[in-house]
Design brief:
Helices cover 70% and strands 0% of the residues. With 79 residues, it is an all-alpha fold. It has a domain of 38 residues. α1 packs antiparallel against α2.
């Protein structure tokens, strides 16, 4: 993400949207895997995994690096 939000309120809104999108993608994957053959399952996992990676590394991680208090507990670095 090249254009990092300037303030934490804007960053929080973006982070919340990105987290919801990730949840939706996970739900889509569960539906795609239901009864899928091996090839379809592998393709679905690869596609959804790629999208989740883009959301995390392109949006969430830069925001949470700048505003660590916005990161959900499960995405915070372990101390």
């Amino acid at each position: 993400m090249n254009a990092m939000p300037v303030d934490s309120a804007h960053a929080k809104k973006i982070s919340d949207h990105a987290l919801r999108a990730s949840d939706h993608l996970n739900s889509i994957l569960i539906e795609l895997l239901d009864g899928a053959d091996t090839e379809t399952a592998a393709t679905s996992k690869e596609l959804i995994g790629s999208l989740l990676g883009e959301i995390y590394f392109g949006i969430l991680r830069p925001i949470h690096d700048k505003y660590p208090e916005l990161a959900p507990e499960d995405l915070r670095p372990k101390s």
